[in-house]
């Protein structure tokens, strides 16, 4: 009866796991990560502090689908130069990346995504640009080097997880806009380098409300024009779309109108203060929202930069509320609009989209909802064929028999959950009892090998005020280095996580060796004290079997043998251990169904060190000290005691407060001390309510 119950439960678990992995795409909505950076211009060696907001693209609220975010610092060539993983709690996460002192001067980007975002579409990756200056990696004439840099974006080759490919690469269609008739008419010109004169195309103008205009047309020579009255354009963002006669999108673009139509943007009046003074700014929920019960915010105060390349959360959510995630992969280019008027000198501002009308995803989709999902592949080393439809185990090393089992799919892939704990996870991936095969086990890297990267600024885009600002930051940093003033410290969590509990619960038989008379060998302990384990020799090699009182016989099949949580197929590896090193022995003398595995008894031996010291690992076993969420960068505040020192204070970053929560019963005070650097500073507060309403606060602080 017990075996039937175990078998029934096992079947339910396997079916549920299969359905979960296969149906994420239908049950989970898409999500995007908004990144609030502390600032946009950095010196090499500094730390990039950021706050992540994970947003449900349908409800615009914070989502808890994914509990893990991946953040990368991307260089100009598109390859990551730094990577970190962040735990998301209640849809938010805080972290930092230290910029290497060896990074050259240039334009970089922060790419942020969850696994669910990445496998839904590569276009969901958040791209936030920033600038890094390194005087050591430029020539003596730093100004000339700076002028070679640019701030536009290019799309790089796609990574191996998501392949975006247009079916219509031969049709090169461009869209141009112009204002005519005394700013009353918008002219949209479509140009094709290879026009098919007799073929019918379709032009669509879309807004949040749906289709505003849809017309069929044929290219007259190379150009076709459409005329729209500006007074008829009431929405904030419009999508222009050109389709061929097969209803395939061959070109799409967006016209942006500047006004934010959703969210609360507050610009507070400027305040003036003197150097080295304590300043307090109050945040009250009643001043920011009448409907929300709580607000989640992050705040920064920095010397005002000559240009701001990051998008605020209001603009971010407005773009997605208009068209949804699938139609807006262009948001990283939104910051390139220099002024907020949608009618610029040469006509309305048009942001271009890549054609993502057809894409395929060759990686399995899943969201890391409650744990970190460890993914890997097993193949035969000789034939390179997948180890398909076979059991694989995750063994957590330690004082407990803490294992998980998974049946690989057709591609030899496996998935295991690891707890969201910071530190090193001592684990092994194993395929026991298959010594006839030489198997290769490879874990999958969750990070992209390439990303979306910025290109250098053009010389004419780099203004004198930008050069002067960077020079000021560099001079201030040199002074701070002389006085050894730090604004951050980097930590690394080396806490070692091992097995936490027995997967089988409490064992039927359990002994601690210290409770009995000392015997010369471990085999004697089994003979004298554990009658349910039988040791037999075949060709002078020991084998262990389990006697089951349920069926009153010894199982012919090998039991599951564990040493400090590691599965062993060779019983001699345990029996040859010095008995003085052994702490306890546990035995489960029953048939046991666990996941997709049928176990004929369980023998678990634990050493006193509990660290699974073996001269060599069993065959088809890989052991890892897997680092999860180990890196941390903490922002250092300047307190009043530091203020009393007699050395110079040349800070230009006065505050970074990423974890602000406002409720009707709890306000928040932003407290900081101004430095010796005179000038205009900027307070930026960003965040979102529990109802999905974005909020941005700006305030100028003049230090003189």
UniProtKB/TrEMBL annotation:
It comes from the Bacteria. This is Macroglobulin domain-containing protein.
């Amino acid at each position: 009866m017990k075996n039937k119950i175990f078998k029934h439960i096992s079947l339910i678990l396997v079916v549920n796991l299969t359905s979960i992995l296969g149906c994420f795409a239908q049950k989970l909505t898409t999500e995007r990560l908004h990144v609030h950076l502390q600032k946009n211009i950095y010196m090499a060696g500094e730390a990039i502090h950021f706050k992540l907001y994970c947003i449900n693209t349908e409800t615009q609220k914070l989502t808890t689908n994914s509990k893990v975010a991946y953040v990368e610092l991307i260089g100009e060539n598109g390859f990551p130069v730094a990577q970190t993983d962040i735990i998301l709690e209640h849809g938010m996460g805080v972290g930092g990346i230290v910029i290497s002192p060896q990074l050259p001067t240039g334009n970089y980007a922060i790419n942020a995504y969850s696994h669910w975002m990445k496998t839904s579409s590569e276009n969901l990756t958040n791209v936030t640009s920033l600038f890094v200056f390194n005087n050591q990696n430029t020539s003596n004439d730093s100004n000339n080097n700076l002028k070679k840099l640019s701030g536009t974006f290019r799309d790089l080759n796609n990574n191996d997880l998501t392949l975006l490919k247009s079916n219509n690469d031969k049709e090169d269609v461009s869209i141009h806009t112009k204002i005519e008739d005394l700013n009353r008419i918008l002219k949209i010109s479509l140009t094709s380098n290879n026009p098919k004169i007799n073929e019918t195309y379709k032009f669509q103008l879309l807004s949040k409300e749906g289709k505003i205009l849809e017309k069929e047309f044929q290219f007259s020579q190379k150009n076709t024009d459409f005329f729209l009255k500006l007074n008829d354009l009431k929405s904030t963002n419009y999508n222009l779309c050109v389709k061929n006669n097969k209803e395939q999108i061959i070109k799409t673009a967006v016209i942006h109108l500047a006004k934010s139509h959703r969210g609360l943007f507050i610009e507070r009046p400027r305040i003036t203060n003197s150097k080295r003074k304590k300043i307090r700014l109050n945040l009250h929920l009643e001043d920011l929202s009448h409907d929300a019960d709580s607000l989640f915010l992050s705040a920064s105060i920095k010397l005002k930069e000559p240009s701001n390349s990051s998008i605020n959360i209001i603009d971010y959510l407005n773009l997605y509320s208009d068209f949804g995630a699938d139609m807006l992969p262009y948001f990283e280019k939104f910051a390139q609009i220099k002024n907020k008027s949608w009618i610029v000198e040469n006509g309305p501002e048009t942001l271009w989209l890549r054609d993502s009308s057809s894409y395929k995803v060759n990686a399995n989709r899943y969201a890391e909802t409650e744990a970190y999902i460890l993914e890997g592949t097993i193949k035969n080393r000789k034939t390179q064929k997948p180890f398909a439809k076979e059991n694989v185990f995750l063994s957590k090393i330690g004082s407990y028999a803490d294992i998980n089992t998974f049946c690989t799919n057709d591609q030899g892939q496996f998935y295991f959950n690891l707890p969201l704990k910071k530190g090193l996870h001592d684990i092994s991936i194993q395929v026991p009892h298959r010594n006839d095969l030489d198997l290769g086990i490879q874990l999958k890297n969750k990070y992209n090998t390439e990303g979306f990267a910025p290109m250098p600024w053009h010389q004419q885009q780099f203004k004198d005020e930008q050069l002067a600002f960077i020079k000021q930051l560099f001079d201030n940093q040199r002074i701070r280095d002389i006085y050894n003033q730090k604004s951050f410290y980097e930590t690394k969590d080396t806490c070692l996580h091992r097995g936490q509990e027995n997967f089988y619960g409490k064992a039927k038989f359990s002994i601690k060796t210290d409770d009995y008379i000392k015997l010369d060998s471990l085999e004697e302990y089994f003979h004298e004290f554990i009658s349910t384990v039988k040791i037999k020799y075949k060709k002078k090699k020991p084998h262990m079997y389990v006697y089951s009182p349920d069926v009153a016989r010894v199982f012919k099949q090998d039991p599951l043998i564990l040493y400090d949580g590691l599965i062993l197929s060779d019983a001699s590896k345990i029996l040859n251990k010095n008995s003085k090193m052994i702490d306890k022995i546990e035995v489960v003398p029953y048939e046991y169904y666990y996941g997709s595995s049928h176990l004929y008894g369980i023998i678990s031996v634990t050493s006193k060190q509990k660290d699974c010291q073996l001269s060599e690992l069993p065959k088809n076993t890989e052991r890892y000290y897997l680092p999860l969420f180990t890196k941390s960068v903490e922002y250092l505040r300047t307190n009043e005691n530091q203020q009393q020192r007699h050395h110079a204070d040349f800070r230009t970053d006065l505050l970074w407060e990423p974890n602000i929560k406002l409720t009707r019963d709890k306000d928040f005070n932003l407290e900081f001390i101004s430095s010796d650097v005179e000038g205009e500073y900027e307070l930026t507060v960003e965040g979102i309510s529990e109802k999905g309403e974005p909020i941005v606060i700006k305030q100028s602080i003049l230090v003189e």
